[in-house]
Amino acid sequence: MHDLPDWVPRRRAEIGNRIRDARRAARLSQVQLGERIGRDHKSISRWENAHRAPDLTDLLLIADALGVPLADLVR
């Protein structure tokens, strides 16, 4: 695999922070969000900490579960 441009990890971290902020605003734990979208809390943690990037389906599920527009998570 080739090296990613520098902006990719930064954007991944920004998206993770937005997921965390929206989850906290909804007063949900990582476990609770995971239960709502059919993922385990470890996946939520990996996304929020930018160790992995959620795919589009996961982003759609997260936005729906948190009641926020998808664009708010990825802007």
UniProtKB/TrEMBL annotation:
The keyword Nucleotidyltransferase does not apply. Gene3D superfamilies: lambda repressor-like DNA-binding domains. SUPFAM superfamilies: lambda repressor-like DNA-binding domains. Residues 19-73 form the HTH cro/C1-type domain. Keywords: DNA-binding. This is HTH cro/C1-type domain-containing protein.
